[in-house]
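Supplementary Text 2. Reproducibility record for the structural model of the 334-residue chain.

All settings were left at their defaults, and a single model was retained for analysis rather than an ensemble. We include the record here because the model underlies the residue-level annotations in Supplementary Table 4.
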Amino acid sequence: MKSINILALLLTQLIGLNIAYGQDALIKTKNLGNFTSPDNQAREFKLFDLSYNTHHWQNGASVIVEVFQDFYSPAYAKYVINFGYGKGANYGDGQIYQVENFGSHEFTVAFGNKSGLNTQSSGYPNEKIPVMLKVKAYIVCRVKVTYTYNEVASVVNHSEIAFGNTIGTVTPDFPTQTMANTAMWTTGSLRVEGLDNHYISQGNVGIGTKNPQDKLSVNGKIRAHEIRVTTATADWPDYVFKEGYNLKPLSEIERYIKINGHLPEVPSATEAGVNGVALGELNKILLKKVEELTLHAIETKKQLQQQDKEITALKQLINTHLPTTSSDTSVEIH
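Retained model, structure tokens:
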């Protein structure tokens, strides 16, 4: 009975240790120490080699790399390395996803050059790839790795990890990744409350649609106080008023309307229904039609003024040449 109590006590202590250190038998954590560039040159370090099978995604494992930047200014980034289905296994290439970040990064984590291993799994070759850490001049970083790979001294089969050393080599300066590169999903509300400007540098945004075809696609109504559309000044139809503009006669426009059922250059109802209407382009077309109509109105006014002059002249001519009456008074024609 006493021996049973002792065993129970030992088991409880082991469970407590696992909980205290956050360890599971299949999940391991390793702190790799400091990685530094002591002068004005960037350095590159091999953190570890990973091995994977080029076909069997069932043989995959997980690895998370956390980088803590201590010098220059505090910064942090967490990376998830993926050699699952379509990411090196079966097809495609492995991926490094930055899932968390903070601060001004002076480091980056990237793959080195992959190479084949002289081993196979169910007839498909195994490969290995180094995971590298680059740090900029005078930067000190510490690295923590959490993994489910089998740790070995040198990778031979799939799903193995072999850690490198802290001896770095000089490398050319490099761009750093300061933003997460994974999709963000939430079933809650998305709120952005920062005072700085907010922007989306690439891709399209959809509201009410999962397949936006333009920079902003809205499947629904939009309410705004004002919408400003910028356009190239060379396309603005002020050229209609320049000398030498080819103004189509109204008779030609009438023939076009009878045949097509809409004004020249204006989208038809069918086209508008299928493709929608570009507001900026349509406003330019409508302004062009207004300016052409203005020119026609000016020309019509000139013609009417000329007709008035001719009618007045005819009246004067008639009044001058009419015979006088017996009372010697002229008859005026109105």
